[in-house]
DNA sequence: TATTTTAGTTACACATGTGTAACTTTTGTG
DNA sequence: CACAAAAGTTACACATGTGTAACTAAAATA
């Protein structure tokens, strides 16, 4: 029973996403969110006790989606194909990255928030597993030197995916450039 | 004449810098700044009409320092030496980078702000000139392929300098790793 | 020492954000 | 149809931020 909802969880996350991207964490307010969804602030407070819990929950949800996505890389391919597969998937979740960067700014206003921040941290590891797998393949194929530190290599890949496309190249060619830089840097 | 100042411009910029790093642009308030300097808010308002003009002025000042710094790379060295020289200097101005990223979030509350944002944009070019010079040298020495796009290469270098040092390696070894990644990517 | 000038403080009016309590609307069900 | 349950709104109290006007403090100088 009860009356029909004016906004779905999808709506909520959609607008949360957009707002976080455009105004950042500190600029994000419940007023702005309510306004962009088209309901009153209090309607959102019925579902989430405060801004912090709403945002951390959004992040956990996004992280789950991302881990799922990355874990679907086809690991039976060659190293280079795996890398390409990976890069395309990582490229799709670029702004997610940016958003997850806000996690450290969230105040521990409640135990729940503190715990979910911890959860988020642990999930970060899950994000790295597929990458580790790809690097392992690269080492097996003799493309990557055995003695190189995996963690640095994957930080490198994560960092490059966030490289701004200032020239506004088509995604495909831009990804090709990134792949080239990852594989061989600036040298011939 | 008049009474002695309680805080110098240096003090002001120092605390502005620290605050921007720790709380970000949206979290930055005149109250926090005044508090960390140890004066009243109004004392700062005597010098800057609002937060926006204060911050944009700080950015212009920082940018000037950075351009000056980068332009002092010794361009009579070999490509690899130039690159190393450059990386050390860029590493010193890492957080500057982060701070300049906030520029787009500053509201155009006055003509002055709008103009200084424009100035800042133009200065960005000045930051690239020494990098272009180094890349040119690399091409001349036949290390970088002639047909590669300079702008992408320098975006790449800028991006890598911001790579987080999650393993907390000593700066020297970390810079060595970055240099290696820039030169050859992940391949042997 | 009285005056001028500059630096700094206090206190106000205003704006925007938060979280909640009391109320209203809409829906399904006995 | 009336009434319980869920969803939504309005209005309030409170907190924090902004910018300014009136005031006070300290130093140079005539």
UniProtKB/TrEMBL annotation, chains A, B:
This protein's UniProt keywords: DNA-binding, Repressor
GO molecular function term, any single one: DNA binding
PROSITE patterns associated with the record: HTH_TETR_2
Domain of life: Bacteria
SUPFAM superfamilies documented for this protein: Homeodomain-like
Domain HTH tetR-type: 6-66
ATP-binding in keyword set: no
DNA-binding region: 29-48
InterPro entries: Homeodomain-like_sf, HTH-type_Tx_Regulator, HTH_TetR
Designated name of the protein: TetR family transcriptional regulator
